[in-house]
Specification:
The chain has one domain: Ammonium transporter AmtB like domains (Ammonium transporter fold), CATH 1.10.3430. The chain is 66% helix and 1% strand. α2 packs parallel to α4 and α9 packs across α11. The radius of gyration is 31 Å and the shape is globular.
């Protein structure tokens, strides 16, 4: 009986607790709002407008510094790199080609080149002329390309790429092209080949960019295009007088090594500057650029040492340039160990191209523009498809060795398209110019040298 009373007491106590708990929840719940007829429906506030792009002074300083570094690559870097490798009667003519290209393309780029390359897209093939004469290209950022620097800073940085690319081709026809024809060729080549290809790969709307092709700083746009065009030029213009029958050894190798060193120095602007900011990606590109270059500068003379018994100074300088070329398209997408592999393979492949392929096919690529830039650029573009990693650059893609074999296919398509486009169109330009103006100096002028016959000067008055 007593137990039953306790049982009922517990039940009553539990009921009171449940009742009180429910009351607490009921008191905590907010009352339902009263609904009035014809009451206005509250409107959600409009989302805040995105903040306008803001110039970052650190990024701007880095891009302008990189612009100056890339300018240095052409003049004096490439100018004296090539100048030391020709015979002394042609040094001024060779240096002049690189120097005057800096002036020619600087004007072409401002007037119409930049608009064709980066202007509003027209079908993925070319930019419009909306930005002709830099109309609409001001000092505010353009978020499509670089949201933290003035648009003109991006424009002039890209100008230096447009400058050095046709300058690289001059190595193929050194010591024998008419200066007047060279000027017209440079303007046509930049307008008809470089500007469209630049749009395909780098511009918003470009069809190779939309395909997913990766080219951080110019493997296809700069090196394959110039290297393959150099091959076409060497074939069309023909061999130098006395080629393979008389010595055509470099007249000043110390000058060539200084030029190679300046290229190595300036290339940090070329690759690290392509991050268009001064942060982690620029640092990564800087590191892998130096690493790949060092590996190639060791690999080329090592091959000479193994095959011929002596490593040469020219081989070391050429290997360094080959490594710079090969790492260029991959520099924003790969890590240091991958860079060592890319550079070492580039040194070996380019050495083979210069020593074996050229002699096997018999073309006279005077300063090995195709052997270094065409072959090295092709390897670098393919290597990007092998070694690229999103861990380095989330805006890129993973390559074959990081689980994505499709990127190799995309890179091969970009390489093939660039090869065919550059070779065929360069061949046509040269044939037209040969019919209208003539490509080569006369035999007599070639014997005397370009310095005297084209410029009325001598490089050495000793």
């Amino acid at each position: 009986m007593i137990m039953r009373k306790y049982f009922y007491a517990v039940l009553i106590l539990l009921a009171l607790m449940i009742f009180n708990t429910a009351g607490v929840f009921a008191e905590e719940a907010p009352p339902a709002p009263a609904v009035l007829e014809n009451a206005p429906v509250p409107v959600a506030p409009a989302p805040a407008a995105p903040a306008p792009p803001k110039i970052d002074t650190g990024d701007t300083a880095w891009v302008l510094t990189s612009t100056a570094l890339v300018l240095l690559m052409t003049a004096p870097g490439l100018a004296i790199f090539y100048g030391g490798m020709v015979r002394k009667k042609n040094i001024l003519g060779t240096v002049m080609q690189s120097f005057i290209i800096l002036a020619i393309i600087s004007i072409q780029w401002v007037l119409w080149g930049y608009s064709l390359a980066f202007g509003p897209d027209r079908g993925g093939i070319i930019g419009s002329l909306d930005w002709i004469g830099l109309s609409g290209v001001g000092l505010d950022p353009n978020p499509d390309y670089a949201g933290t620097i003035p648009h003109q800073a991006f424009m002039i940085f890209q100008m230096m790429f447009a400058v050095i690319t046709p300058a690289l081709i001059t190595g193929a026809f050194a010591e024998r092209m008419k200066f007047s024809t060279f000027i017209v060729f440079t303007i046509l080549w930049a307008t008809v080949i470089y500007d469209p290809l630049c749009h395909w790969v780098w511009a918003v709307g470009g069809w190779l960019r939309n395909l997913g092709a990766l080219d951080f700083a110019g493997g296809t746009v700069v090196h394959i295009s110039s290297g393959v065009s150099a091959l076409a030029t060497a074939i069309v213009i023909g061999k130098r007088r006395g080629y393979s029958m008389e010595s055509m050894a470099p007249h000043n190798l110390p000058l060539t090594v200084i030029g190679a060193s300046l290229l190595w120095f300036g290339w940090f602007g070329f690759n690290a500057g392509s991050a268009v900011s001064s942060g982690a990606l620029a640092t990564s590109a800087f590191v892998v650029t130096n690493t790949a270059t060092a590996a190639a500068a060791l690999a080329w003379p090592l091959m000479e040492w193994i095959i011929k018994g002596k490593p040469t100074v020219l081989g070391a300088a050429s290997g360094a340039v080959a490594g710079l070329v090969a790492i260029t398209p991959a520099s924003g997408f790969v890590g240091p160990v991958s860079a060592i592999i890319i550079g070492a393979v580039a040194g070996i492949l380019c050495w083979f191209a210069v020593t074996t392929i050229k002699s096997a096919f018999g073309y006279d690529d005077s300063l090995d523009a195709f052997g270094v830039h065409g072959v090295g650029g092709t390897w670098g573009a393919i290597a990007t498809g092998l070694f690229a990693s999103k861990a380095v650059n989330s805006a890129g893609n993973d390559g074959l060795f990081f689980g994505n074999p499709s990127l190799v296919v995309t890179q091969l398509i970009a390489v093939a398209v660039t090869w065919v486009f550059a070779f065929v169109v360069t061949f046509i330009i040269l044939k037209v110019l040969d019919a209208i103006m003539g490509l080569r100096v006369s035999d007599e002028d070639e014997v005397l040298g370009l310095d005297l016959t084209q410029h009325g000067e001598s490089g050495y008055n000793l």
